[in-house]
Amino acid sequence: MNCERFDEIQLAALVGEAPAAARRDAAAHARACERCGPAAERDRALEQVLSAGRHGGTERGFSRARRRLHKSFDDRRASYARAEGPFGPVFLARTGEGLCRVSFRSGTEEDFAADLVSHDLLPEFEPRKLATEMRQLRDYFGGRITAFSIPVDLRLATPFQQRVLRTAARVPFGRVASYSDIARRIGQPGARRAVGTALGRNPVPIVIPCHRVVAGDGSIGGYMGGLEVKRTLMRIEGITLERTPRAHRG
Amino acid sequence: MRAPFEDLMIRYEREIYRFATRLTGNAADAADVLQDTFLRAFRAFPRLPGDANHRAWLYRIAGRSASNLRRSRRLRRAAPLEAARGVARQNGDAHALLETRHLARALAETVRSLPARQRSAFVQRKYEGRSYAEIAVVLDCSEESARAHVYQAMNRIRHTLAGVGSRRGSAKRRTR
User: Fold this and answer.
1) What is the ipTM of this complex?
2) Is the backbone of residue A238 left (phi > 0), alpha (psi -120 to 50) or beta?
3) Option in B1, B21, B150 nearest A57 (CB)
4) pLDDT tens digits, residue range B50-95?
5) A11, A54, A55: best mutation site toward chain B, by most B Cβ within 10 Å?
6) A-proximal residues of B, 70-89, CB under 8 Å
7) What is the pLDDT of residues A135-176, one digit of tens each?
8) What is the three-class DSSP state of A126?
9) What would the DSSP string read from start to end of A23-45?
10) Which of B39, B83, B154 comes nearest A52 by C-beta?
């Protein structure tokens, strides 16, 4: 037995894989060796502390961590539903805070749910939880209401987009504002293009009426859901533009 | 979409928390790792093949999450006091408590500073009693590599702690 072999055996013993005979040989070596005697003692202490290291936390620590975990998932729950619009199906989703997503782009229910997941939301098909939203949407399409009274959760928008959207939300039914108007109202008159982009990413179109924002020259501007949808919404609201609509993004 | 993932979460949260505690050495970091693990898992879940080994997959994410946590900020101090008390009670004296506490802290710090794969392999083998075959699945490596990771980790721990006063009377010696 040399010191190198001693180290090998001690290491294997710590891992739990040294045969008893080898451990006995190592112990005998330790008794006779000036270097390995203290090392054997240290290994014994390490062995003890290692077995205590199995400690995997307390029950209280676990329940606290678990509560936090579940709360963070509860905050991400999103109920969704499918409604019919004048231009095809409309998907809606809401969190505990409010309506967070409206989509009428062609796509299936699975696409809509996958889109919610990609935003860290936990989708669940629960139309009953969106009864108010669906009713108001139907009433709006049918011309029976001119404003929505449902809470909106803008968590899918950046802070800048939120400012733009809140400002756009104040454009009344049947009226229009230009991209520059909105840029001015948020105090960034030069941000006309950024406003257009922010409106194009509106997570809750129709309910936040980005369709009421048009180009400064009176042309229709852009619309993420397609200009046909924008024209339909304007028709519902009796909006007529001075100029012939042409497709370009403001 | 919700039900299968939440089932998975409820099934493994306790085990992952224990693993995270052993990886990080304290409850607060373990809670962070637990949350981060399931959030990452949730994002990746839709792309996970149907026949995937969920346990191994979650362990892999937790191991990565613990090492990201280490990189992203200074960790809280390891809290192996409970462990130290347990050992000292067996030894039954106050000096031993001090020494053991010192050693237990040094051990926890060393475990945390191990490379991610060594740390994961070491914790699974030594603290959770997993076989090398199981560890190999988690680390997506051969059994020999899994075993090598455990030996390298233990070797590092043994060497690092050789510099830490563990013998009676040497507990007050500064170690670094």
Assistant:
1) 0.75
2) left
3) B21
4) 888 999 999 999 999 998 887 766 555 555 555 555 555 555 556 6
5) A55
6) 80, 82-84, 86-87
7) 999 999 999 999 999 999 999 999 999 999 999 999 999 999
8) coil
9) HHHHHHHHHH-TTHHHHHHHHHH
10) B83
